[in-house]
Specification:
single chain; alpha+beta; Structural Genomics Hypothetical 15.5 Kd Protein In mrcA-pckA Intergenic Region, Chain A; Pseudouridine synthase; 3 domains; 10-stranded mixed sheet; 7 helices; 30% strand; globular
Length: 345
Amino acid sequence: MSTSEEFDEAESCEIRTAVADEAAGDRVDAWLAKLWPDLSRSRVQGLIGAGKLSADGQPVTQSKDKPRPGAVYELVLPPPAPAAPQPEAIPLDVVFEDEHLVVVDKAAGMAMHPAPGSMRGTLVNALLAHCGDSLSGIGGVARPGVVHRIDKDTTGLVVVAKHDAAHRGLAALFARHDLERVYYAVTRGAPRERSATIENRLARSNEDRRKYVVVRDPDSEAGKHAITQYWTIESYGQQAGASAGRAAAALLECRLHTGRTHQIRAHLAHLGCPLVGDPLYGKQRAFKAEGPHAEEAAAAVAAFPRQALHAAVLGFTHPITGEELRFESKIPDDMAAMIDVLRRL
């Protein structure tokens, strides 16, 4: 007999295959449990009952079936259920709260919810301690109440539902893009146009699966439709070696009209002005400026420890009360300090 195992990234499931031979035995569950000792016989029976076993592409529904010599058996193992996050007494900057939802001004370095590599110290851990048992479970065991996300190293405003009705209402707003979301971004270089709307499709990169890139073919249905509107608030200095008028850096206001993963980061990188400090989309771009404060500015940019992106405005209609809500968060101290240095250019 021959066997193989692989990990299916799209479904986050492990897929195991085996070809039965004459010595496979009288029962398929016993054969597979002996073949893969890490799976108990009862576990195999449960997977068969859940429709996770097939032979030559056809479902196997009975654990007592006899293995068919020469048939290719495929067993799909779903990912283990995520452990329920534990409450942690982490200080939070709560800007609004009622019995339905809570709006938090998230600090840099805090992941939204537990995930491999960030199982503790997340916003969900903190909110479980803050809200107790009221937090919505609709978002899943590992991310209760979470309706939208901002990256771990992005700062600013997020809203979390405290019960299922609020979660459904907020999810509907995000699905319709019926919210006001404004971000401030500091970029290396500056867009050629001081203001514009970027509209295209974003898809996962084939070269680096962590990244999202603009789909080049305008007729392609790959990826997801993404719209970002931006305005240049300030531009800083002269980019070394570039034509006159090409700024070394800029402060942009970005408004999201869709909410795709890494949308602002990918769109600004596509324009040739990635976020300062972005470890994924800006690694290949060096900061180059001319003038008496160029070295000081370059040092400030090099020392900035995260992507310079801040969720500054969040406005929406309360999903339960119907009240119009709008919250603002000032640019965080680390970004403000870097901007002060850049202004000297």
